[in-house]
Structure formats: structure tokens, C-alpha cells
């Protein structure tokens, strides 16, 4: 295999050699009917819900048993992980409009698309619960639905994005959740990814293939692994490389140390017939400033003072029709 730097493509670029791709791990499914998600019943008044305490995950003291360690991390941290469903609308070529009486009609027709990913609860404040995920998980969303630990579905809104680092913060309202649901979820404990050692065991949790939360484990294969994040090779980002299985749908999910602390956001994997166990996660310590900005309801850009809503107003019509999902879905 060639020793050139792999790239995360904005479209279907070939990588390393024919068939090798760095896949942003969100799973894309077909068209779904609108209204497939049920609303959440209101159980208590909004004031009580805003003041309900959401627990935090615990910092664990692990035993000598690897199996029991992973099980303890999973049990402790899964309440902080959510599944995210993105319903978007894209323009697709209407070939029938090119012929006969339809030749002057609109050459494009709209198609509804659904993709799934993961997210991590990182904050609760002012009646909102904030969830960290990848930007490519929520990009171009018409609606976003989060499925919580107790299988409650609730609509989410975008709070802030950092497109260059492939990160986003979305939020849900505590008033839309029952008292029981608020007791079932948890806020992730943020760790220090700068302290990671190569060979250290880690756990990945996410919505693999859209089946619901699943747990995989592996080791830190490398730290500070520089990977180009676009077709522009001058733009690169540092990742944690792991051999824990990172599959479509895992994007935005948690990479955890054996103390149950969030040390990375799972984002991509290298896919090739000759490649095994090369997954990539964004190191949490590298993006703390970005997260703080997004939690304030701002986008991260050259000017960090642009409210997140203006980003979508300015760019909603600028995306090319084939960029709704700027990643490959690798089966």
C-alpha cells in the first residue's frame, strides 16, 4: 500500500489505491415517510423539568478483568449516548423531464433521505440538554431526531457547528422529556485525551448501522495521527487511531478510556480489502475551545460571533445536490 496520506473526501474520491476509502461513519438509508417518529408525552410542568438534575457518568476504578472492565464502562456510559436520525431533502435529476411534453419542466425533483449517527450528552443548562456529534451527521438536516437511552424519541435543533473540525452541538428541550427519561440519561464525564498512551484500551459506543447502541473495544493504535480532512491536502486534523470497530452509524459516538471518560468522538475509518482495524476519533482535548464556542450557540469560523441559525440561512441553498451526505457509505 502506498504511503501517502489518506483523505476524508467531500465526495467519492479514491484513496491510497483503488477501493481504499476513509469513510465518515454515518449510515445512509433510503426514503422514509414523514411523521415516523412519535412525539413525547408531557408528564410534569416545564419548570420542574428544567430543574431536574441529570446525573453524570462516574469515573470508574477498573478491575484486572478486561471483560468486566468493558462491561462496567458500557453500563456506566451508555446513558450518555444518543442515536441521531437526520431527515434531509435533496434535489435529484428528473430524467423524464428531458423528453416529450415534460422537456421544459423542472429537471430536478426532490427526494427525502435519511441518515443515522450518534451523539454524546455533554451539558444540561437553561432547560436544554446539549449533545456533541459530528458535523457530517447533522449536515443539511430538515429534521433531527434523537433517540435516548430509554428509547424516547425527541426532536433536536442545531446549536452550533464547526465544519472544519467536523463537529456540531445540537440541543433538546427538557420540557419535551418525561421525568422518567431525565432519570435514565446522563452527562458524559470529559477526560484528557492528551494523557492517552499507545496500547491503552478504549471502548467505542455508537449507533452502528442504525441498529441501536452497540459496544466495541480495542486499543489506542496511535495518537496525533495527522489525516487530511478534505480534498485540500493543506488542511489536516489530528486524530486518535484505534482498532476498536468503527462502523457506519458510529459517527459522533463516544471513544472512552477505561475510567469511563470521554476522550474522543468517533468519526471515520479506513476501508480497504487490505486494511483492518483503522478507525479514527477526534481527540477531545484538541477541541475544547470549539465545543465551548458551540455551547454558546455560535458557529466556529474565522469570526466566532455568527449565530448558528445564520449559517443555515446563508448556506442552505448553496450546497450542490450531491453533497447532502459528504461521505461514502461503505457496506
TrEMBL record:
The keyword Disulfide bond does not apply. It comes from Holdemanella porci. GO terms for molecular function: serine-type endopeptidase activity. Belongs to the peptidase S1C family. GO terms for biological process: proteolysis. This is Trypsin-like serine protease. InterPro entries: Chloro_Bact_Ser_Proteases, Peptidase_S1_PA, Peptidase_S1_PA_chymotrypsin, Peptidase_S1C. Keywords: Hydrolase, Protease. Gene3D superfamilies: Trypsin-like serine proteases (2.40.10.10).
Amino acid at each position: 500500500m502506498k504511503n501517502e496520506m489518506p483523505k476524508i473526501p467531500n465526495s467519492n474520491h479514491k484513496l491510497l489505491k483503488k477501493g481504499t476509502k476513509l469513510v465518515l461513519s454515518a449510515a445512509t438509508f433510503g426514503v422514509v415517510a414523514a411523521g415516523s417518529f412519535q412525539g413525547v408525552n408531557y408528564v410534569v410542568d416545564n419548570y420542574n423539568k428544567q430543574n431536574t438534575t441529570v446525573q453524570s457518568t462516574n469515573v470508574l476504578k477498573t478491575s484486572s478483568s478486561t471483560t468486566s472492565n468493558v462491561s462496567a464502562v458500557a453500563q456506566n456510559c451508555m446513558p450518555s449516548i444518543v442515536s441521531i436520525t437526520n431527515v434531509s431533502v435533496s434535489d435529484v435529476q428528473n430524467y423524464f423531464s428531458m423528453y416529450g411534453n415534460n422537456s421544459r419542466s423542472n429537471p430536478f425533483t426532490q427526494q427525502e433521505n435519511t441518515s443515522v449517527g450518534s451523539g454524546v450528552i455533554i451539558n444540561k443548562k437553561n432547560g436544554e440538554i446539549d449533545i456533541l456529534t459530528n458535523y457530517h451527521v447533522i449536515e443539511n438536516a430538515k429534521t433531527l431526531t434523537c433517540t435516548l437511552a430509554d428509547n424516547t424519541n425527541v426532536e433536536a435543533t442545531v446549536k452550533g457547528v464547526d465544519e472544519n473540525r467536523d463537529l456540531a452541538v445540537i440541543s433538546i428541550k427538557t420540557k419535551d422529556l418525561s421525568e422518567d427519561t431525565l432519570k435514565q440519561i446522563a452527562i458524559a464525564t470529559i477526560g484528557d485525551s492528551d494523557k492517552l498512551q499507545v496500547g491503552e484500551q478504549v471502548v467505542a459506543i455508537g449507533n452502528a448501522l442504525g441498529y441501536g447502541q452497540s459496544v466495541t473495544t480495542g486499543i489506542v493504535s496511535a495518537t496525533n495521527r495527522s489525516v487530511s480532512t478534505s480534498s485540500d491536502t493543506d488542511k489536516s486534523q489530528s486524530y486518535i487511531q484505534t482498532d476498536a470497530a468503527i462502523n457506519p452509524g458510529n459517527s459522533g459516538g463516544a471513544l472512552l478510556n477505561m475510567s469511563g471518560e470521554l476522550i474522543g468522538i468517533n468519526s471515520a475509518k479506513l476501508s480497504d480489502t487490505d486494511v483492518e482495524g483503522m478507525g479514527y476519533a477526534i481527540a477531545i482535548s484538541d477541541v475544547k475551545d470549539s465545543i465551548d464556542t458551540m455551547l454558546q450557540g455560535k458557529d466556529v469560523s474565522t469570526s466566532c460571533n455568527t449565530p448558528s441559525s445564520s449559517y443555515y440561512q446563508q448556506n442552505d441553498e448553496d450546497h450542490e445536490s450531491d453533497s447532502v451526505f459528504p461521505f461514502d457509505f461503505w457496506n
